[in-house]
Design brief:
Layout: H1 14-33, H2 40-64, H3 67-88, H4 100-123, H5 129-151, H6 155-182
Length: about 200
């Protein structure tokens, strides 16, 4: 019979961070699918619930000195807040095509976010398989977001990876919470895909 190694119990807000990712992602997927719109009543979920939770989790991880969680949670906290501010202020109506300087500003925002997210996704190779595919889904969502803004692509293209990210975020939250509560691995998340400590970049 296979022996399941015990999991060290610890008090952390990392689980809440993944909950914030899940809630924000499901709202964005519904908006892209056309199930909801980006009116004030919908954006409140993005602003007051997942955004604040991600910010709290990122600040708490500063004490834990967890650089990867700090970077990823801060990035998405700012992303949720930026979207909420742009939509509630009327600067950007997601249901309408944008052109000119406004389109370039919003596109640049998502391109910069995609560059940062790409590095976070690469670093996620050292966490586990579920977390890696979670942030890979986010990278795809950002890419299709840019296609929608610049070329008017269908929002469904961005909605699908956002929905997948929501499911994976929820699974990570549930796995971390349950495993920590029980004290052993109940829901597996897979092994790391790549160990970055083996990587050495040398300039002669």
């Amino acid at each position: 019979m296979k022996t399941i190694p015990p999991v060290k119990k610890e008090v952390t807000t990392t689980q809440l961070g993944y909950m914030g990712l899940s809630i924000g992602s499901i709202v964005l997927s519904f908006i892209n699918f056309g199930i909801a719109d980006n009116t004030v009543s919908k954006v409140q979920w993005l602003l007051f619930y997942p955004g604040i939770i991600l910010l709290i989790s990122a600040i708490h991880n500063i004490k834990q000195k967890s650089i990867w969680e700090i970077s990823s949670f801060f990035l998405f906290a700012l992303f949720w807040f930026s979207l909420a501010t742009a939509w509630t202020s009327g600067f950007w109506d997601y249901s309408k095509t944008i052109e000119g300087p406004k389109m370039r500003i919003i596109s640049a925002f998502f391109v910069v976010g995609l560059v940062h997210l790409s590095f976070i996704t690469l670093f996620a190779l050292q966490t586990n398989k579920v977390v890696f595919f979670l942030f890979f889904s986010f990278s795809l969502a950002f890419f299709f977001f840019i296609l929608k803004i610049v070329y008017g692509a269908s929002g469904v293209l961005a909605g699908c990876p956002f929905f997948m990210a929501a499911l994976l975020s929820f699974y990570v939250w549930l796995a971390k919470t349950l495993n920590n509560f029980v004290g052993r691995e109940v829901l597996p998340m897979g092994d790391p895909i790549y160990d970055w400590t083996k990587f050495h970049f040398k300039i002669d």
